[in-house]
């Protein structure tokens, strides 16, 4: 068994370090790549992907992987996790033929371009045909992968192993039934605050401010970088090279700060995973939902709390001494609730309804219960029903997200799973670090990072998401922590009785 393990580790190590080149290229594409370099970059990417795919299909040469799967009850916890994850990837890899993978990749590139154009022209009908083809190929993927109960289960499994439609239906219905009337209570109050920022905020100074904030949160800048990209993201290139990006506006420092804090949460998680896990493919978080729980916890539960905003306010003054807002102003600005069209611009109260709408729709697209041509109508009527807004045009509605154009069906639910987990974990952490609710010092932030390391980060992908959460919080996923967090905070802020 030892020699089989050794061989498997060597094979996984090669795949991991070759694919880290493609992570670096992805980062470069978003941060530095000149426009005319796009097509040659696509060739390099596809060649690296091909090398990794070939190596993936060879994982079981000599039957070592299948043998190890059969013997996994005798393995250590870490080795068993490594074998489990290697087999998951291998098994998915062998179900897709080379020609299927190529067809999917060509369609994604094409549909992405069509989507960009359609969004610019605010016209869903331009995109409808190729989106239909994308849904058909997703259905083919579902059939190749196989599934139980609901075809959408095969797709969620890629992002959130173990999650199913029947679990999500229960979770999301409960969340929706709490949020819709609660948001109505807030909007009925018709509170209007002055939420505009006055003044100019030099990007150079903002960069320093954002680095300071990442540093106090515990993101290690000597094992990472902060750069600029249109859509902020985090990428893991190696165990000591985890990079984040943000985007600055000279009129408003808030967007950049909260993007940095969000990505910093992802970065701190990934930087905390042991190197030996990275080497064998269990170095990433337990699932996308768990990963998102860390970013949302830093961004929302911590980042949008009054004690943190007081600390943040001091740092803003350090670089912008003429800043006129008080911490209380800033708290209201940062926590203002407005039902709007755009998911990525929405506040933490309305956000999950954007996700639930997408989930309800994509599940039915995959099962064939909604036709592509009906999409704008279904989208707009759900927006009206849940958020009370009338969508004026397709670019502000059904065309706003990139995900479907790239074939990422089943991804959206992980954002809300992250929100739910974040509140549940934070609630447990507060028992050990009660000062998070009162005055936040640099030491409090150190304790928070250490707590998360001890209960979440250091395990990488050793545990499945549900088990990790049970171990950390004493119970499986429970939405009541998120609901009470929202209810308590916003009832106070909006004087609801
Ligand atoms: Co995120």
Beta-strand proportion:
under 5%
Radius of gyration: 23 Å
Helix content: 55-70%
> Which sequence of strands runs across the widest sheet?
1-3-2
Q: Catalogue the unreliable spans.
A: none
* Helix/sheet category: mainly alpha
Q: What's the level 1 CATH class of the largest domain? A: Mainly Alpha
Shape: globular
CATH topology of the largest domain: Neurolysin, domain 3
Please give the largest β-sheet: 3 strands, mixed
Order of helices and strands: HHHHHHHHHEEEHHHHHHHHHHH
- Rounded mean pLDDT is 95
Bound molecules: cobalt (II) ion
Number of helices: 20
Number of domains: 2
What is the CATH architecture term of the largest domain?
Orthogonal Bundle
Can you characterise this structure?
The protein folds into 2 domains: 145 residues, no CATH class; 329 residues, Neurolysin, domain 3, CATH 1.10.1370.30. The protein is 63% helix and 3% strand. It has 20 helices and 3 strands. Strands 1-3-2 form a 3-stranded mixed beta sheet, with helices on both faces. The longest helix is centred in the N-terminal third of the chain and has 30 residues. The model has no long low-confidence stretch (mean pLDDT 95). The structure holds cobalt (II) ion. Cobalt (II) ion (CO) binds next to α10 and α12.
């Amino acid at each position: 068994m030892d020699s089989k393990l050794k061989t498997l580790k060597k094979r996984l190590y090669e795949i991991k370090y070759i694919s880290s080149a493609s992570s670096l290229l992805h980062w470069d594409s978003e941060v530095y790549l000149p426009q005319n370099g796009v097509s040659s970059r696509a060739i390099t990417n596809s060649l690296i992907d091909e090398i990794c795919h070939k190596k993936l299909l060879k994982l079981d040469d000599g039957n070592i992987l299948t043998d190890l799967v059969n013997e996994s009850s005798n393995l250590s916890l870490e080795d068993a996790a490594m074998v489990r994850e290697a087999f998951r990837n291998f098994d998915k890899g062998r179900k897709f033929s080379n020609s299927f993978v190529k067809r999917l990749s060509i369609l994604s590139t094409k549909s992405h371009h069509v989507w960009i154009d359609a969004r610019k022209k605010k016209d869903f009908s331009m995109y409808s045909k190729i989106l239909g083809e994308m849904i058909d190929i997703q259905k083919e993927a579902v059939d190749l992968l196989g599934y139980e109960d609901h075809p959408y289960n095969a797709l969620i499994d890629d992002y959130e192993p173990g999650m199913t439609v029947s679990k999500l239906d229960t979770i999301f219905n409960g969340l929706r039934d709490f949020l819709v009337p609660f948001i109505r209570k807030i909007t009925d109050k018709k509170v209007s605050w002055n939420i505009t920022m006055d003044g100019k905020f030099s990007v150079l100074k903002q960069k320093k401010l954002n680095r300071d904030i990442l540093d106090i949160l515990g993101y290690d800048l000597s094992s990472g970088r902060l750069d600029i990209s249109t859509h902020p993201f985090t990428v893991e290139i190696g165990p000591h090279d985890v990079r984040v990006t943000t985007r600055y506006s000279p009129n408003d420092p808030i967007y950049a700060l909260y993007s940095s804090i969000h990505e910093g949460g992802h970065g701190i998680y990934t930087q905390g995973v042991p190197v030996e896990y990275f080497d064998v493919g269990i170095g990433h978080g337990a699932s996308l939902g768990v990963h998102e729980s860390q970013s949302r916890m830093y961004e929302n539960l911590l980042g949008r709390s009054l004690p943190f905003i007081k600390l943040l306010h001091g740092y803003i003054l350090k670089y912008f001494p003429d800043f006129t807002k008080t911490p209380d102003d800033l708290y209201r600005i940062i926590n203002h609730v407005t039902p709007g069209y755009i998911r990525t611009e929405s506040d933490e109260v309305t956000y999950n309804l954007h996700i639930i709408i997408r989930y309800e729709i994509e599940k039915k697209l995959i099962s064939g219960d909604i036709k592509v041509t009906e999409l704008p109508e279904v989208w707009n009527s759900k927006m009206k029903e849940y958020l009370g807004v009338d969508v004026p045009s397709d670019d502000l509605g059904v065309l706003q997200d990139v995900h479907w154009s790239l074939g990422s069906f089943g991804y959206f639910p992980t954002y809300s799973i992250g929100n739910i987990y974040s509140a549940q974990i934070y609630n447990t952490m507060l028992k050990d670090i009660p000062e998070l609710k009162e005055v936040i010092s640099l030491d409090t932030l150190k304790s928070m990072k250490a707590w998360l390391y001890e209960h979440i980060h250091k395990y990488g992908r050793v545990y499945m998401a549900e088990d990790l959460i049970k171990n950390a919080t004493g119970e499986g996923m429970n939405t009541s922590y998120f609901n009470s967090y929202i209810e308590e905070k916003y009832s106070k802020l909006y004087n609801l009785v």
